[in-house]
């Protein structure tokens, strides 16, 4: 929690105690996952380009959506299992025979992650006027009573590699991809390709933090209201003036030595 005195004109004397409703993190974990050979799914137009591909190169990967489901763990009170499905938008440069310029193709890839954390115990149902739709089970489904809120933080994955392979009879649950995700690739995902059809597989590096949060009421001391001391500055400097304020990049011209890559190479 931030210090109430930061940026405030307070005399340091205790004024009153107030009750705040805040989200308390009961448990959290961080993880790094190397996601090897994730299948990339394309629209009909994108798959037609992949069918003619000679080589591919991955340009970028970004998280566009997550589905999160929280369920209590049986025989372990207070613990909850968070099932998280990540949806990645994969952008590729596809090289076809007879063409020197690549074609940019976008596809969708999925990854499911599970985390078991302690979330405390509670049996209350919470309703809020901020979002009336949450009060109607017919609109959004019934919220699980007493379950904590799962918060997932992640940076866009690191694109490590990509390759062309072929489809296999292994079951892929592409029916989970919402329509709002398929809009990124310009159409519905093609999932009924015959075995042996060209397919793209990518390897991504993913960093995540998973938290289980509950709203709790806490009593905190209040010293005074926080009045901003900084004045709004609407002046727009000239580009050259901004450039002159940037520190000279000495390390770019003269890299420091003595580092150790830790690879054990002789």
Describe the structure.
This protein is mainly β and about 270 residues long. The chain has one domain. The chain is about 10% helix and about 45% strand. Strands 1, 5, 6 and 7 form a four-stranded antiparallel beta sheet that branches. It has a three-stranded antiparallel beta sheet with strand order 2-3-4, covered by helices on one side. The radius of gyration is 26 Å and the shape is extended. Mean pLDDT is about 80; it is low at about 1-10 and about 135-140.
Helix content: under 10%
Low-confidence stretches: 1-10, 137-142
Report the total helices.
Answer: 5
Classify the secondary structure makeup into a structural class: mainly beta
* Number of DSSP E strands: 7
Question: What is the overall silhouette?
Answer: extended
Rg over CA atoms? 26 Å
Q: Give, in order, the helices and strands.
A: EHEEEHEEHEHH
For the residues shown, what is the average pLDDT?
81
Distance between the termini: 49 Å
- Number of separate domains: 1
Q: Into which percentage range does the β-strand content fall?
A: 35-45%
**Main sheet characteristics:** 4 strands, antiparallel
Architecture blueprint of SSEs:
Elements: E1 16-40, H1 44-51, E2 53-72, E3 79-96, E4 103-118, H2 137-140, E5 149-154, E6 158-166, H3 179-182, E7 198-222, H4 239-244, H5 250-253
Spell out the key features of this protein.
single chain; 266 residues; mainly beta; four-stranded antiparallel beta sheet; three-stranded antiparallel beta sheet; 5 helices; 10% helix; disordered N terminus
